[in-house]
Amino acid sequence: MAIFDIQLPPGIAKALRLPQNSASRQQDRVLRKLLRKARFTKFGQKYRFDEILMAKNPNARFQELVPTYNYNRIYDEWWHLTLEGQQDVCWPKKIKYYALSSGTSESASKYIPITSDLLKGNRIVMIKQLLSLRNYTDIPVKSIGKGWLMLGGSTALQKESGYYAGDLSGITAKKVPFWFQRFYKPGKKIARERDWNKKLEDIVSKAKDWDIGFIVGVPAWIQMCMEMIIERYGVKNIHDIWPNLAFCVHGGVSFEPYKKGFEKLLGKPLTYIETYLASEGFIAYQDRQHAKGMRLVTNEHIFFEFVPFDHVNFDSAGDMISNPQALTIKDVEEGKDYAILLSTSAGAWRYLIGDTIKFVDKKRCEIVITGRTKHFLSLVGEHLSVDNMNKAVQMVGEELNVSIPEYTVIGEPYETFFCHRWYVACDDTVDKDLLCTKIDEKLKQLNDDYAVERKSALKEVFLEVLPEESFMEFMRVKGKVGGQHKFPRVLKGKMLEDWKKFLNQ
């Protein structure tokens, strides 16, 4: 039996566009809605959106006429015009807000357009997620009406020439609906603070005065905040301060590596709710207890295409070919890795977001994030995904009864062949050689290609154990603290160079 039952009036259910029919038909309507809204923009005129709308099969015609984009290409061809103040470029009117996003592998900030239509769609999805709590059981109802501590970016946005820029979580918090303000913590004053360390200190100082039911954010920063509160007030666990804390809403990275560390800070179990909110839009959310994955948002403000993540569509560096095979939702299969293309109500068109997912329940449109197109290791054909690594770390952590909240891996030449080098955060006492052997064994079990290559060209696996603080300090040095920033699971390019310099220092 559900913890509470909400009977929505038909008009509200229709306004929220709660799922009533197939995901494929919902996606058809979303694409048409996006095309109609943007048909008079410069992008819509060039790629003949009117013609696509009149086609017998708009989906197929859309793929024929509109090319695929990564960030660099769409910025160079289109989005730079919006930053220069032009309107009606890829979406109607002038873009007033941009989410600054550098992902987890690149140094330069990306400017992702944020429109009122996108924020409206995100808010509707957030309401749907809140309403989905009626599908949960055995959790305290009273916690639902308590405070929501949202550990996001600063709402004090950078004012540029004709627009504002900042973290998406900061933009979202700045525009929080009036009815939600009584629940919202840390409040407007603290939320404006740009210095993440100062913001954490302010939150810790106020923590004893709040009655928190939900805590929301990236797992690493949530854990750090709870540890600071426990230390400041000399209590045994976070529930000594917040007895009604019942929900942890998290996203951005796999939660499993953090779970053991979290549980040490609790006085009673939490209900964990996963979300998939990217700078480009609210993509998916967990809508029921013990779900296999997150439900894809198919009926709101994003049209999805799925590119099989294989050697046919991607090169060895993780770059997508110019004309990939792109499937719509009706043609995907469970258990296969796909890169996502988004078309959104902020003027992203067939845009490669860089994440890889797989469907774990196609009927329910439930997905899990398996990694990023750039964050995988395949030096010699081992095809090691972040999903494989997360599972191996989780299994070994449970077997050895240690907490491994962070890790990163690099691939590099070794003698005449190659090796993987792991850097693992663990504040528990652990034998690094045993840890290395165990992770290697689990990866062989999880990935046949890895097992084969460990007998040939992938000659060695090395592992170093570092304090968790080392990982956090590197993020501080890089200016990637708080909000949606998370440590990359695979290091390449400039980030790898900076990591090696950091370790040498």
From TrEMBL:
GO terms for molecular function: acid-amino acid ligase activity. It comes from the Bacteria. InterPro entries: GH3, GH3_C, GH3_M. Residues 297-362 form the GH3 middle domain. Transmembrane segments: none annotated. Residues 388-492 form the GH3 C-terminal domain. One of its GO terms (cellular component) is cytoplasm. This is GH3 auxin-responsive promoter. It comes from Filimonas zeae.
